[in-house]
Amino acid sequence: MADVKRKNPAAAGGLSAVIWGAGQFYNGQRLKAVILFVCQICFVIISPHLFQGVKGLITLGEVERVTKGRKVIEQGDNSILLMIMGLTWLFIMLVFLTVYFGQIMDAVKLARQFNQAHFLPEGREWLKRVSHKGFPYAVLAPTICLVLLFVVVPIIFGFLIAFTNYSVPNYVPPKHLVDWVGFTNFQDMFKLPMWNDTFWGVAVWTIIWAVLSTLTCFFGGLMMAILINSKCVKFKKFWRTIYILPWAIPGMISLLIFRNMFNGQFGAINVFLRSHGMISQNIQWLSDPTLAKIVILVVNFWLGFPYFMALMSGVMTSISQEVVEAARIDGANPKQEFRHITLPLVLYTTAPLLIMSFANNFNNFNTIYFLTDGNPINPTYKYAGSTDILITWIYKLTKDNGQYNMASVMSILVFMVIASISTANFLRTKSFKEEDMMG
Q1: Cα–Cα–Cα angle for 23, 25, 31, rounded to 5 degrees
Q2: Are 81 and 70 in contact (CB under 8 A)?
């Protein structure tokens, strides 16, 4: 063993830095060296496409379409397509760079291992070890690639749009090129009155809506669960079945039905009230901003409380009766039992779901869109109605008005708000910290 020549880790790393796998070949792992060298050949072959794709991502096109009347003389570059392809090629380049630096570190590591053990697995033995240790990674790799291409790339693409002037009708490819504008869109959102007033108006209503819709459904479900589980109530299964129906029926169907019922001209509610002499004129439920917001909260309560009712019922049945009996022996009345035993245990179990419900209501597109479509119209708002929340405003900015850059700005702001609020509240919950429930 004393005659075995030692390997130089620096030399192994330097060789791999020039030729992929050369360091592995120097260490005696020839099969691995061949595989890495093939990877380098693949990188060299596709490198022109890689650099062209990254260049397109940086420039977003250099040749604008040339037309003569309705005839296209020169097609020009499609900035959005270049951005998507550039992101894809950028991820592929990152994979190759990871392999490149990984094989350099591997060569250095192998040289050190050889100097210690004077042996490195090669050929069949190396393949056997790789197949044993690398099987989970080989199975997960295709999924990771698909997630990168179809989840991560679109998210980054939507993020990058916020830093361009991509909007209708001035900058729509391939008719026009899209340019990078930096933080101009963010500045416009907070400096230009038409955007700033709309943003703050919609944002305030969004927060009010998210808080009220979450609290009403949560505590409404809790109260219903307490009533149904009361010893005074008979036929508990019947009541649970009746009250769970609003949640079982598809929400879109219920919302469209309520939209017709609250119609200001021929809605069933106005017809009923008029026929019984309760009103002399139709109430414009969805045309008045204040009434429309109240209607939204009431309908959302109808749709949302059954979920929390079923959840609370399950939590309450799991409460130890020994604790309850001990409290009664100590003289606690029903109100004290609820305040000091039932409510703390319920909140401990459901606090994370309460936070998730807030995040869900913050982006509750269906309730707003299918019930009021964001109306009534607010003349002081830009592309938004009086009942629009941020997510429905984003939808209108993209689908109806083609303001893709400003919609992307809004998406980033919404993400920052939701992520910060949810993270802060999750970290403060006792269930997250795994504290003792009775502590």
Answers
A1: 125
A2: no
Distance (Å, whole) CA 339 – CA 214: 20
Give pLDDT tens digits for 148-193: 888 888 889 999 999 999 988 766 777 788 999 999 999 999 888 8
For 185-433, give the CATH class. mainly alpha
- Can you list the alpha helix ranges (DSSP code H) found in 148-278? 153-161, 184-191, 193-228, 236-248, 251-261, 268-275
Polymer length of the chain: 439
Q: What is the pTM of this model?
A: 0.79
Cα–Cα distance, 426 to 420 (Å, whole number): 10
Helix (H) or strand (E) holding 74: strand 71-74
Residue 311: phi, psi to the nearest 5?
-65, -45
| Residue 67 binned pLDDT confidence (cut-offs 50, 70, 90) | low
How many beta carbons lie within 10 A of that of residue 131, not counting itself? 10
Q: Are 40 and 20 in contact (CB under 8 A)?
A: yes
Q: If you ran DSSP here, which 8-state letter would residue 64 be given? A: -
Q: Average pLDDT in the 381-407 region?
A: 92
CATH 1.10.3720.10 boundaries in the chain: 185-433
Number of neighbouring beta carbons within 10 Å of residue 27 = 27
- pLDDT tens for 85-110 read 999 888 888 889 999 999 999 899 88
Q: Cα-Cα-Cα-Cα dihedral of 280, 285, 287, 291, to 10°?
A: 110
Rounded Cα distance, 394 and 3, in Å: 72
